[in-house]
Amino acid sequence: MSLVPVERLLTPSRAKSYSACPRKHHYAYTLGVRSTSNGSAATRFGTAAHAAIEAYWRERAAGADLAVDDDGHALLWPSVDRALADHFDVLGEEQWVKLRALIELYCASWNERAVEVLAVEREFQMPLLHPRSRKQHPYYWLGGKIDLLVRLEDGRVALIDHKTTSSDPGAGSDYRRRLLLDPQPTIYVAGCETFGHSVDLILYDVLVKPGQERLLATPTEKRKYTKDGKLYASQREHDESADDFDQRIRTAVFGAPSDYFVSFEVPKPAAELNAVQANLWAIASELLRVAELGFARQNAGACFDYGGCEYLPVCTREASIDDARLYVRVGPSPELTEAARTAA
Questions:
Q1: What are 328's strand-pairing partners?
Q2: Does the residue 313 lie in any domain?
Q3: How far apart are alpha carbons 96 and 296 in whole angstroms?
Q4: What was the pLDDT predicted at 271?
Q5: Host domain of residue 305
Q6: Cα-Cα-Cα-Cα dihedral of 34, 39, 44, 45, to 10°?
Q7: Considering the domain boundaries, does residue 342 fall inside one?
Q8: Does residue 340 surpass a pLDDT of 80?
């Protein structure tokens, strides 16, 4: 199967962007412009986590032996350490400390399981079919990149999706219910079949960001002292050191691992693909009409979601989409490979 050019690929991220706001989609996917700010703090944290997790599974796929310390405890592979180090400046020290503890917990948890790695960050392309006629869309194809595909100890093939959150991902939570409504896994299950694997279940691995913050010195004007000249026990003379903060986070994470690493199974979607294809067909058809009109409508209701849209200054006429200080042209779907971007 020959590759389809990236501008003709309808990925789950692209479909989500268009559904949220066609104008946002126009800037991100038609013009291929992204913010120079590396996204929100939550986005930066999630991107760094995915990079470290990818490095871990590539080592597992290569059959690398676990590194251990003098006491026999597993250490992070150098490639995982490098992936974390690459994001230190973007995250800042406090967030980096939290992420490293979570990655150590994640790796330690999976180190105990003898699974076969089938695919890591694997891309796919497949025709977008009309849900009734099964006719192929005249322009758009479906595409994407799966995080991970493994064969579990019991022989089942699991499609694993990784998430980071500050919310409660427990059973019955709004966070988990949103995941159950996400059409992305349905598309990815079908995508796995394009490279020869039938998925038995979807497994969500969710890293929960610690809520603890670094303890700061009590402002001078708010300090209270006992009769013998000592600060009240609830107050601090100095900021918490980086080492003390690191130790406090690690104690919290490894003291209650199930609070910070939540993994749960979702049955393979049985009859949802047609519904998902119908929704994507409708989006693809709208995209063709938008291209014909040369105009993408704005959804003002989405401007302040998730901390605010990165293109809000453009829509409010406070900045230009061509302002190189704020935006950079990376092309549509920069997460896909150069091969997909330059396919003929």
A1: 34
A2: yes
A3: 38
A4: 62
A5: 12-35+282-344
A6: -140
A7: yes
A8: no
User: Is residue 191 predicted with pLDDT exceeding 50?
Assistant: yes
Beta bridge partners of 205: 162, 263
Q: d(Cα 102, Cα 106) in Å, to the nearest integer?
A: 6
Q: Are the C-beta atoms of 17 and 290 separated by less than 8 Å?
A: no
| Total-model pTM | 0.86
> Average pLDDT in the 224-243 region?
85
Parallel, antiparallel, or unpaired for β 157-165 and 201-208? parallel
Residue 81 lies in a domain: no
Q: Closest Cα to residue 149, out of 115, 180, 111, 178?
A: 115
Domain membership flag for residue 206? no
Residues 25, 17 contacting (CB under 8 angstroms): yes
Structure tokens at 127: 């025709």
Amino acid at 243: D
160 three-state secondary structure: strand
List, for residues 257-305, the tens digit of each pLDDT value.
999 999 999 877 666 777 888 899 999 999 999 988 888 999 998 898 8
Please name the residues in contact with 76: beta carbons below 8 A apart, sequence gap of 6 or more.
56, 67, 84, 103, 104, 107
Overall number of domains in the chain: 1
Per-residue tokens: 111: 């180190």
